[in-house]
Write a structure and sequence with these properties.
Blueprint (H helix, E strand, L loop, with lengths): L6 E6 L5 E5 L13 E4 L4 E4 L2 E2 H7 L2 H10 L5 H13 L5 H9 L6 H13 L10 H26 L13 H10 L5 H14 L6 H10 L5 H12 L7 H12 L5 H10 L17 H16 L4 H17 L8 H11 L7 H22 L26
Antiparallel strand pairs: 1-2, 3-4, 4-5
Helix pairs in contact: 1-8, 2-16, 3-6, 4-5, 4-6, 5-6, 5-10, 6-7, 6-16, 7-8, 8-15, 8-16, 9-10, 9-16, 10-16, 11-15, 12-14, 13-15
The chain binds carboxymethyl coenzyme *A (CMC).
Carboxymethyl coenzyme *A binds next to helix 15.
C-alpha cells in the first residue's frame, strides 16, 4: 500500500519524467499565480502582496475584488467605475428570478445557487464575448448577481416579499438589506464586509481548482463557477461553517465541550472548523473573525456560542495542536454570521458570494496562459483478465 501523505515515486513517464503520486495532490504545484500566497507555517496570507490584516482594516469588498481581478489597488476613479458596474449588474434576469422564487423550499441553498448561476448564464448578453472586456463583464456580473440569487431564494422560501437590490448600498450592506428587508446598521455592514474580504481568495483550494479544471478545457465561465459551487458545498471545504454551529448545538453548553471533543477525537471524528491542508498554525482569517465573534457576543450579551467556541479551541490545541491542527476560517465565521441574522444554511452560500471573485481571478489568470489539466492515475488493477462470456460467469 502506498503512503497516504508522502509524495511517492511510482515509475517513469513515456516522456522520460518521473511519475510521482501525492494523495489529494498534497504539495503539488499545479499553476503559477500572482493572486495570493499563504505561509502555512507562519499563518500569513497576502492578496497581491498585501497582508490580509491590512485589507480587513482599510479595504472594502469592492476594492479587494478589483485588486484580485486586476492585480493592483484601483485609483479613486477606477474604483468608482467598478463600484457602479457591480451595482448595475446586481439584477438577475426575470426568468431566473421566477425560477428561483418558484423552487421548492427544501433543497440546500447551495444546490439552488448551482441552478441559478447556470440558468443566468443563458441570458448573459456577453455570453459569446471572448475579449478581455467581455470576460470581465461576465465575471463581474456573476459576482454581483450571486447575493441577489441567495437573498431572493431565502425571501421566497420564507414567504416574504422579494427586496430588489439597493443601488445606494455597497456589496455587503446590500446583501443584508435584500435578505432582511431593512438596511443594516453601519457597524454590522462593515463586519460583514470584512468577513467577505477574508473569504474572497485562498489560492488553489478545492473549489478554485475545480473552476480552473473546468475553464482549462476552454468551457465557459458560468460552467467553471458552477463546478466551484458544487465543490465548495462539501463539509471538508466551505460546508464546514454550517456544521460548526450544528456541533455547538449538539454540545449545548461550554461545560460539555471537553467530553464532546475528547470523544470525537477518540472515535476519529473530525471537529469541523479545525485543520487545514496548508496552515499548520492559526489561520490568520480565523484570528480576525474570532475578534468580531467576541465583539458581537458582548454587544448582544449572548456569550454562550463564543464561550463554547473558545473552550473547543483550547481543548483542540491542547490535544492535537502538535499535529498542526488549529481553527480555520470556518470556525468563528458562523458565530459572526449568526449575530448578523444570517440563517445557518446560508453560511456556505455567503462563502460562495465572497469566494466567487477568487474563482474568477484564477480562471482569468490561468486561461491567459492555458494548458488543459490532465493528471494521471497510477493503475493498480490486474495486468490481464480473461473475458468470460456471461453464461459462464458464476
Ligand atoms: N479534527 C480532528 N482531526 C483532524 C482534523 C479535524 N478537523 N483535521 C485533520 N485532522 C487530523 C487527521 O485525523 C489526521 O490525523 P492522523 O495523521 O493521526 O491520521 C491529520 O490531522 C491530518 O489530516 P488530513 O485529513 O490528512 O488533512 P488534510 O490536509 O487532508 O485535510 C481538512 C484538511 C481541512 C480537510 C481537514 O483538516 C478537515 O477535515 N477539517 C475539518 C473540516 C473543515 O473544517 N474544513 C474547512 C477547511 S478551511 C476552509 C475551507 O477550505 O473551506
Amino acid at each position: 500500500m502506498h503512503s497516504n501523505k508522502e509524495m511517492v515515486k511510482m515509475g517513469v513517464l513515456e516522456t522520460g519524467g518521473v511519475i510521482q503520486y501525492s494523495k489529494g495532490l498534497e504539495g503539488v504545484i499545479a499553476a503559477l499565480s500572482s493572486i495570493s500566497a499563504i505561509d502555512g507555517a507562519q499563518g500569513k496570507l497576502i492578496y497581491r502582496g498585501i497582508p490580509i490584516e491590512m485589507l480587513a482594516k482599510y479595504s472594502t469588498y469592492e476594492e479587494t475584488a478589483y485588486l484580485l481581478l486586476y492585480g493592483e489597488l484601483p485609483t479613486k476613479n477606477a474604483l468608482d467605475e467598478f463600484t457602479v458596474l457591480m451595482r448595475e449588474l446586481r439584477h438577475i434576469p426575470p426568468k431566473v428570478e421566477m425560477c428561483i422564487t418558484e423552487l421548492p423550499p427544501n433543497p440546500h441553498p447551495m444546490d439552488i445557487l448551482k441552478v441559478a448561476v447556470a440558468h443566468s448564464g443563458l441570458y448573459d448578453p456577453d455570453q459569446y464575448r471572448c475579449c478581455r472586456e467581455g470576460v470581465m463583464r461576465k465575471v463581474i456580473r456573476i459576482i454581483a448577481q450571486i447575493p441577489t440569487m441567495i437573498a431572493y431564494y431565502h425571501r421566497a422560501r420564507t414567504g416574504q416579499e422579494i427586496v430588489p437590490p439597493n443601488p445606494e448600498l455597497g456589496h455587503a450592506a446590500n446583501f443584508l438589506y435584500m435578505l432582511h428587508g431593512k438596511e443594516p446598521d453601519e457597524e454590522e455592514a462593515r463586519i460583514f464586509d470584512i468577513a467577505m474580504i477574508l473569504h474572497a481568495e485562498h489560492g488553489l483550494n478545492a473549489s478554485t481548482f475545480a473552476a480552473m479544471v473546468t475553464a482549462s478545457t476552454l468551457s465557459d465561465i458560468n460552467s467553471a463557477i458552477v463546478s466551484a459551487i458544487g465543490t465548495l458545498k462539501g463539509p471538508l471545504h466551505g460546508g464546514a461553517n454550517e456544521r460548526v454551529l450544528k456541533m455547538l448545538d449538539e454540545i449545548g453548553t461550554p461545560d460539555r465541550a471537553e467530553e464532546y471533543v475528547l470523544n470525537a477525537l477518540k472515535e476519529k471524528r473530525r471537529i469541523m472548523g479545525f485543520g487545514h491542508r496548508v496552515y499548520k498554525t492559526y489561520d490568520p482569517r480565523a484570528r480576525i473573525l474570532k475578534e468580531y465573534a467576541e465583539y458581537l457576543s458582548k454587544k448582544y450579551n449572548d456569550t454562550k456560542w463564543i464561550e463554547m467556541g473558545e473552550k473547543i479551541e483550547e481543548i483542540m490545541i491542547r490535544e492535537v495542536g502538535k499535529k498542526g491542527i488549529f481553527p480555520n476560517v470556518d470556525f468563528y465565521s458562523g458565530i459572526v454570521y449568526q449575530f448578523l441574522g444570517i440563517p445557518r444554511d446560508l453560511f456556505t452560500p455567503v462563502f460562495t458570494m465572497a469566494r466567487s471573485v477568487g474563482w474568477a481571478a484564477h480562471v482569468c489568470e490561468y486561461t491567459q496562459n492555458n494548458r488543459i489539466f490532465r493528471p494521471r492515475a497510477y493503475y493498480t488493477g490486474p495486468d490481464y483478465v480473461e473475458y468470460v462470456p456471461i453464461e459462464q460467469r458464476r
